[in-house]
Amino acid sequence: MKVMIDPGHGGKDPGAVSPEGVHEADINLRVCRLLYGVLSGLGFEVLLTRDADVTLSLKARVRACNSFKPDCFISIHCNAAANPAANGIEVWTSPGETAADPLSREIFMAMQNHFPSKRFRSDFSDGDPDKEGSLYVLKNTRAPAVLVEMGFVSHPEEREWLRDPLKQMRIALAIADGILKWKMR
Known about the structure:
Elements: E1 2-7, H1 24-41, E2 45-48, H2 58-68, E3 72-79, E4 90-93, H3 101-114, E5 131-132, H4 136-140, E6 145-152, H5 156-163, H6 165-183
Parallel strand pairs: 1-2, 1-3, 3-6, 4-5
Antiparallel strand pairs: 4-6
Helix pairs in contact: 1-6, 3-6
């Protein structure tokens, strides 16, 4: 099983930045490195789109994924909003019923199982909990592609939760759990 992991943003693009200067890109990279370690330890062939704080275009991420030809593509992000009360975990796929929907459902359910007290932001209008959007990396990769928004760096408590190394490991384990359940289907 081959998995491409995409730590969102990086380099000149820090992603969401909290008022205290916490950069989304840094959290994304830490969680992705942990996920890489978990999946590699399980015998998966894993590749990161970036393993340092470097700038990488969306086009380059997609090109790397399509060259690697993984069984799935997982892009990891943190969210932010102007309203500091906004919070919650989201799992995204491209619009319509796609090959990524079963993977997104398994990751969503695994995250809920690992974090039952967290708020989950979902869209059941099409019968499943994932949110859908025409995000470049989701619609242009050839592999089933899922984007996980781990929480909001703009929300004070969630930001601290996202920065906690133990929580980062638990997030990585939850995502790996979802990938494993999807693989076993």
